Amino acid sequence: MDFAFTEEQAELKRQARAWLSERYPLDRDWDAPQDDRWSELAELGWLGVSVSEDEGGVGLGFLEEAILLEELGYALYPGPYLATVGFALAALGPADRAAVAAGTTKWSAEVNGLTPWLGSVDKVVDMDGNAQPAQGEELVSVDPSRPLGRLERSNGTPLPGPRDIPRARAAMAAEAVGIAQRVLELGIEHASTRVQFGKPIGVYQAVSHQLANTYADVELARSLAYWAAWCVAEDDEQAPVAAAAAKAFAAEAAVAACERSIQVHGGTGFTWEHPLHRFYKRALWLEGLGSRPAELRLEVADAVLGVSVPV
Amino acid sequence: MELRDTPDEAAFRAELRAWLDANLPEERRGGRGGAQRFDDAFGREWSRMLYDAGYAGLTWPKEFGGAGAPYSFQAIFYEEMARAHAPGHVGVIGLGMAGPTIMAHGSDEQKQAHLSKILSAEEIWCQGFSEPDAGSDLAAARTRAERRGDTYVVNGQKVWSSFAHIADFCILVTQSDPDAPRYRNLTYLIVDMHAPGVEVRPLRQITGEAEFNEIFFNDVEVPVSNRLGEEGEGWQVAMTTLLHERGTLGFALTAALESGVNRLLDVAREKVNGDSGIRERVAAEWIELQALRYTNYRSLGAYQRTGIPGPEGSAIKLRWSEQNQRMTKLGRELLGAEGILDDGWWHHQQLRSRGNTIEAGTSEVLRNIVAERVLGLPKGR
Fold first, then answer.
1. Of A1, A212, A234, the CB nearest to B367
2. What tens digit of pLDDT does each residue of A221-233 get?
3. Whole-number Cα distances in Å, B278 to B259, B264, B265, B345, B347
4. Are A188 and A178 in contact (CB under 8 A)?
5. A297 within 8 A of B287, measured Cβ to Cβ
6. Could you report the per-residue pLDDT of B254-263, keeping only the tens digit for each?
7. Cβ pair B29, B68 in contact under 8 A
8. Sheet of A136-139, strands arranged across
9. What pLDDT, in 10s, does the model give residues A140-151?
10. At what angle do helices A165-193 and A276-288 cross, to 10 degrees?
11. What residue of A is the nearest CA neighbor of B6?
């Protein structure tokens, strides 16, 4: 057993961090339309990470995609990477996969009746595993950078692959870890520099222990997210339970991390100007999309206790 | 990244499992831990069996009588021991703390004298760190070691020392120079627990039994050759001890927790199968256990490469202790009206768990350590 990234994977993580932080800094103009730099992602190979080289991809796997998803969460990247790669890709056939890798088609998937990015993707995997044109009613989302919609179905085209729910959940868990990590760092920075009563507020245990709690949450969430990613990548039989556990834990950890960071920031954390609320809204979006944590824990209960017998 | 056993690891696991099946009597399984670990004469016999089979000191270098195995084998050892509900080796302080400290700082004579006897459980060790007025604040230790020629004369009191009443030796942190600045005032000694002037008093605890002791030192003469490291460098030596305590401690803790969570699942299946609120809470404990397990694996990855446990390991003891408290309380709750009976297991575990957030670093101190050393927040002291 060796639960650590390879040198190549660690390098991918570093590169993603550097590339994203340059293009998506925290002091970006949040009110301007956000460029998703889709063709650049295709050039970087990020859209075809798990697509075979024959189909124009990189021929790696879901672990590398999870690494990118964590970094995309960390950077609060605006585009539909999660939907295309995390939700839809596993269902697609060779030609569609090649088009994803080339950056020519953006996909989403219907998740419990809601379709993320409905207005900005090309196609959607519906609940029955058919391809649909992306059309329907657009809705206002808790996270304005992550629009939602209600798909209007037409005669769909059956897709060859599965609606891979563990993969989608593991993808959301990875993003949630990135968000939690970032708001922890913001909290540390603020607590180290904000001075009250003559001292940086991070010396006060009422403040520092909040951040220590977040640290423990983030590390445990990360362990579950990587475990789930490994299970998905290896098609391990534990993938469903690992992904349910990881999504429930990581989404809640991210929401709690944001809430603690807002508290540590004091009034600043409550302002529109500070980006914390954007991380918070994305964490809430991830927590709520698909099955909520309580439902996921009941799935885990079915797996570890046996299916419930109603009394 | 590979979460499956390598062929070597799988072979080791299979061999250990078969050995446990063949050698651990059924009636010796599933003990409740606590004072049973050392009050039962089987403890030493079992430790000797583990030693003879080559399972003591798995990660110790071969030159010191260990197996020279990678840390992952130690992790597998804890997992399989927990799976078999096997009692542990009684020499845990020697194996996990005193031995590694002697290897790092000891003289050849000290290595020669103690290491093989620690492995074979011929020598049982205890730890003399905490004092009535120096719990979390180790540098404030007041147990005095006064140099007189070739001996130190030791006077003072230690507390919360498990195994002291059966121990042959103690790793003792003493104050050797009250005028020296903090962290340069301590000297680390190996003390013979059978020496004149050493008195051990069992400390009865919340469960009613005595797992811990107070140790009183009254003009105890300790040869200077029993010093570990230099005079005044006891702090650095003590940090080695604590680093090793934290190295694979997480696996031992998580393995024990896994036995408990498995019992919880059994109780839940039997008592409350249809209650979705309870099912969700039980699942949450299973999830937290997996989170701890895989955090251990990540920390181990760093330990294998660098010899220092990864920083994420500092979260493990904190979360483990809180989970053990929550989990054992939930076990009591699931037993319903019978939850207030002393059933010999849940009752003991639930009360015992209250010590988990205090022993081996209180949760408050652990949060300070995370804040200052891991997160780099400004120091409050």
1. A212
2. 999 999 999 999 9
3. 19, 11, 11, 21, 20
4. no
5. yes
6. 988 998 999 9
7. no
8. A115-116, A148-151, A136-139
9. 999 999 999 999
10. 160
11. A1
Q: What is the mean pLDDT of chain A?
A: 96
Q: Is B152 helix (H, G, I), strand (E, B) or coil?
A: strand
Q: Give the β-pairing of B212-223 and B169-175.
A: unpaired
Tell me the C-alpha distance between A124 and A132, whole Å. 5
Q: Do B367 and A213 make contact, defined as CB atoms within 8 angstroms?
A: yes
> Does the interface predicted TM-score (ipTM) exceed 0.95?
yes
pLDDT of amino acid B67: 94
| Residue A173 contacts residue A246 (beta carbons within 8 Å) | yes
Choose, out of A186, A194, A197, A220, the residue to mutate when testing the contact with B (most B CBs < 10 Å): A220
CA distance A90 to B153: 72
Q: What pLDDT is recorded for position A105?
A: 98
- Tell which of B261, B370, B372 to mutate to test the A interface (max A CBs under 10 Å): B370
Domains and CATH numbers, chain B: 7-90 (1.10.540.10), 125-232 (2.40.110.10), 248-374 (1.20.140.10)
Q: Is B245 a catalytic residue?
A: yes
Partners of B319 on chain A (C-beta within 8 Å) are: 216, 220
Q: Which of B79, B80, B245, B258 is catalytic?
A: B245
Asked whether the beta carbons of residue B377 and residue A192 sit closer than 8 angstroms, the reply is yes
Provide DSSP, B298-333.
HHHHHHHHHSS--GGGHHHHHHHHHHHHHHHHHHHH
- Structure tokens belonging to residue A283: 């964490």
CB–CB contact A188 B377 (8 Å): yes
Which chain A residues are Cβ-neighbours of B312 within 8 angstroms? 219, 222-223
Amino acid at B274: G
Taking 50 as the pLDDT cut, the residues of chain B under it are: none
Residues A7-158: name the CATH superfamily.
Acyl-CoA dehydrogenase/oxidase, N-terminal domain (1.10.540.10)
Cβ contact, residue pair A249, B291, below 8 Å: yes
Residues of chain A contacting B366 with CB distance shorter than 8 Å: 212
Residue to substitute from A3, A213, A218, A234, interface B, most B β-carbons within 10 A: A3
How far CA B376 is from CA of A191, A260, B173, B334, B364, in Å, comes to 10, 18, 28, 42, 17
Contacting residues of B for A311, CB less than 8 Å apart: 273-274
The whole-number pLDDT of residue A311 equals 46
Q: Nearest by CB to B280, which of A188, A301, A311?
A: A301
- Identify all chain B residues contacting A208, using CB atoms and an 8 Å cutoff: 367-368, 371-372, 375, 377, 380
Residue B273 to residue A205, Cβ atoms within 8 A: no
- Structure tokens given for A109: 């998937």
Handedness of CA A51, A70, A88, A138 (dihedral sign): negative
Nearest to B280 among A1, A220, A294 (CB): A294
CATH architecture assignment, domain A165-305: Up-down Bundle (1.20)
Please give the pLDDT value at position B381.
Answer: 64
Residue ranges covered by each domain of chain A = 7-158, 165-305
**Is residue A119 helix, strand or coil?**
coil
> Residue for token digits 């290896």?
A234
What the block records as the tokens of A204 is 């006060």
State what percent of residues in chain B have pLDDT above 70.
98
pTM of the model: 0.94
